[in-house]
Specification:
Elements (H helix, E strand, L loop, with lengths): L1 H18 L5 E3 L2 H26 L6 H38 L7 H10 L4 H9 L2 H11 L2 H14 L3 H24 L5 H5 L18 H9 L3 E3 L13 H12 L4 H17 L8 H21 L17
Parallel strand pairs: 1-2
């Protein structure tokens, strides 16, 4: 799993380095300071955990056991955060490079595919907006995307399940590669930009629903110089829906935790539905996101050595 993550991250970084000199996108010098600060904080946190373990090496008290458990959890979390940060930065830069293009947008084609499937996005938005309770639930589910990733990472770190963490990161890495390739090949602006509904048509959703990225996208496509500060970057991927990809992978990652996987599946099913009225995705985006998730899972399962999978429910260890 580590090799999968490293290879994908290095691939993104190599493409970014080769592409940047020929792009209108440039990296803000402040990025370096941010990276160095993050690295220093992570290193300090890891060394702090090591220090706790060293100082308590001969202490057999219950309080010392709890502190050792916390230190090991911290030391599990730090390398994962370092890997995740590197992958996220490299993939994020790629998304901006790929969006700085004059290639025609394919929104019309995606809307036509939706229509062929019997789905009309403006009508769906109208129905969802007309049911405030449903709209609120979809907004909450959609914006649980980040907290779910953070929560999953913290829980796996707390119970010292490095294998679960690495599998999830590997899924993120592989799915990011597939998603990046598709978004580069099929540029889109999103359903809100294409259909341009009146503000009252989505008043039950957030004010910038599906349009957080649009100002950056327009500037990137204009051919003007774009100075990228990575931690201010917006999610530019509309096709496929990466929210859908990750929602499916979160449920897959929790497959061996029987009391959690059911509620997680319910929440992420609502998240996937919410990608259309709140995230501004076409139904086609969601279907493509589902396909990316399934293929990514199959790739990771193929890489996993036969017999390594364990199907018994996991027991969550607690500090003694």
């Amino acid at each position: 799993m580590v090799w999968v993550i490293v290879v994908v991250t290095v691939l993104f970084a190599a493409i970014d380095a080769a592409w940047l000199p020929f792009s209108t996108v440039s990296l803000d010098p402040r990025n370096l300071g941010g990276y160095l600060t993050s690295a220093a904080v992570l290193l300090a946190a890891y060394l702090f955990g090591k220090l706790i373990l060293y100082r308590l090496r001969d202490d057999t008290s219950r309080g010392a056991d709890r502190l050792r458990w916390a230190a090991k959890s911290l030391m599990t979390l730090v390398p994962v955060l370092a890997i995740f940060t590197a992958l996220g930065c490299a993939a994020g830069i790629f998304s901006y490079l790929a969006s700085a293009t004059a290639a025609p947008l394919i929104d019309g084609h995606l809307a036509a595919i939706d229509a062929a499937l019997g789905f009309h996005w403006p009508s769906f938005l109208e129905k969802a907006n007309g049911t405030p309770v449903l709209a609120t639930a979809l907004v909450i589910a959609y914006h649980s995307f980040g907290p779910q990733i953070v929560g999953l990472t913290l829980v796996y770190s707390a119970v010292h399940r490095v294998d679960r963490l690495l599998e999830f990161l590997a899924l993120l890495a592989v799915s990011s590669a597939f998603t990046a390739a598709l978004m580069a090949l099929f540029p889109t602006a999103g359903a809100y930009a294409y259909f341009q509904p009146a503000s009252e048509a989505f008043e039950a959703f957030t004010a910038k629903a599906g349009m957080w990225h649009y100002a950056d996208l327009l500037k990137l496509r204009s051919g003007e110089p774009f100075n990228l500060l990575v931690w201010e970057a917006q999610g530019l991927v509309t096709f496929p829906s990466y929210h859908t990809v990750v929602a499916i992978m979160i449920v897959y990652s929790l497959r061996r935790v029987p009391h959690v996987v059911g509620p997680a599946a319910f929440l992420n099913a609502a998240l996937i539905v919410g990608t259309m009225p709140e995230g501004g995705h076409y139904l086609t985006d969601v279907i493509a996101g589902g396909m990316v998730a399934v293929v990514s899972i199959l790739v990771i399962r193929a890489i996993t050595a036969p017999g390594q999978e364990r199907y018994e429910p996991e027991q969550t260890p607690t500090p003694s």
